[in-house]
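Sequence, please.
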């Protein structure tokens, strides 16, 4: 059963958030969204890894009518710690509150699970990518703080920043 939330976007479009359960639905949605986000997700092997991994995780999708426009998948590491495994909103839908809605659903799930901390890994500011500067700003505005940089986790060309948020 899908839990749905309705909202009016700034541009007046109708969007709803649904929790997906079926792995094939999760794969279809994540493939569609990640294909639109080449500036963020440009490594084919990494995209396939995200699609495969997220198909077995708690997963919420944003729909504009019947078309998927965003998603988030959460990986629970321990009783008190989880991670945003992957998240994406189609670029045409950025800055309309969809990412915040998706994150809100993931945070509610974390709270219901008794999870105290939610983390996300993203490209560090030591890499000059303007798209990821916007990503880091989104997470900061949602209450995440920078915790640690891992210059070699994804290789020296892609320094990783770990951000964390306390779930209340």
């Amino acid at each position: 059963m899908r839990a749905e939330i309705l909202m009016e976007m700034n541009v007046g479009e109708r969007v709803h958030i649904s929790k997906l359960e079926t792995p094939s639905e999760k794969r279809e949605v994540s493939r569609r969204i990640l294909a639109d986000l080449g500036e963020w997700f440009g490594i084919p092997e990494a995209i396939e890894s995200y699609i495969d991994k997220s198909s077995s995780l708690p997963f919420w999708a944003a729909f504009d009518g019947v078309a998927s426009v965003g998603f988030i998948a959460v990986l629970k590491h321990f009783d008190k710690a989880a991670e945003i495994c992957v998240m994406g909103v189609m670029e045409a839908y950025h800055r309309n509150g969809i990412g915040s809605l998706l994150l809100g659903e993931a945070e509610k799930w974390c709270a219901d699970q008794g999870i105290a901390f939610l983390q996300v890994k993203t490209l560090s500011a030591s890499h000059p990518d303007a798209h990821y500067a916007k990503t880091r700003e989104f997470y900061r505005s949602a209450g995440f703080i920078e915790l640690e940089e891992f210059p070699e986790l994804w290789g020296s060309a892609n320094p990783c920043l770990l951000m964390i948020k306390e779930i209340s």
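The domain at 4-166 is CATH 3.40.630.30 (Aminopeptidase).
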